[in-house]
Sequence to fold (326 residues):
Amino acid sequence: MLLEAGHELLVFDDFSNSSPIALDRVRELAGPAAAPRLQQMQGDIRNPKDLEQAFTKAPSGIDAVIHFAGLKAVGESVQHPMHYWDVNVNGSRCLLEAMQTHGCHTLVFSSSASLYGYPEAVPIPETAPIAPINPYGHTKAAVEQMLSDLHASSPDSWRIDCLRYFNPVGAHPSGRIGENPLGIPNNLYPFVSQVAVGRKSQLQVFGGDWPTSDGTGVRDYIHVMDLADGHLAALDCLLAEEPQLLTLNLGSGQGQSVLEMVQAMEAASGCSIPYAITDRRPGDAAISVADPSKAAQRLGWRTQRGLKEICRDGWAWQQQNPDGYT
Ligand code: UFG
Fold:
């Protein structure tokens, strides 16, 4: 989408949980005219030398950074908290220092609804208390605090968006690029897709006695293409307006249960998805749904795609790439 909008891009990635093949496919989707505007470099945001190389690679400098580099598995963060603090918090600190050094003061940061913890009320507005319940969420909250302190130190220069994602799912509608988690997926959507395609035999539904319509957990699933639209809108807003720190939920405002997701994927794939209801997963909330009205008001952005499109596009990806990018 950034290429389609005419931007010049440098993708900086350590490829620890991603594949350079995904970028080849982005070039293919963008077409031969746009593809040369995408450069890539392998590096680690914790390594100042790598960052220095990135910031000097672009001939006319870097105008803005969209910061997606981080670890995102809740369970893993409980087992390896120091690794999460190192990559997510120390990595962000290194990146911000490099940005300062090079006079780049525009940043879109991938934050997370996980910093709301167990929400007091749904839908959740941005003003809800910050109360993470796992190390992953704590690291996102810490980076938001760092960004707030940095913005306060120089409010006339910094333009910062903190985008609090709800549950991103789905894939590019071409089926060429999509999510390919390493090992056993711990999130619902990739697991459901892998059961549909026959890579896993059965889904475990974590709890059938939640206070929800069908007893299973309810989340705000957002199509990854809507999420991408949200980033473009956020970047355009930052570049057009006065320097500011803007914090926004990116979600649909609609809740869907685990069983609704299973049914939608069965309809999209034509495959049956066997499941068993098991105990609740420790640390889960019953319901997490965004109040997305601030993003609508500030960016004119709303989700355009529902569960049907999410499962249609995710299934196209899963079916065409049953083993991911290998
Ligand atoms: N679930 C199952 N079976 C599974 C996996 C999940 O029943 O195998 C259920 C969960 O109990 C929950 C729902 O499906 O009710 C969604 O679970 P996910 O793991 O897909 O997503 P979470 O809402 O727990 O967490 C996700 C991301 C976090 C992020 C959070 C809020 O994993 O990184 O959304 O943004 F912080």
In short: DSSP finds ten helices and 13 strands in the chain.
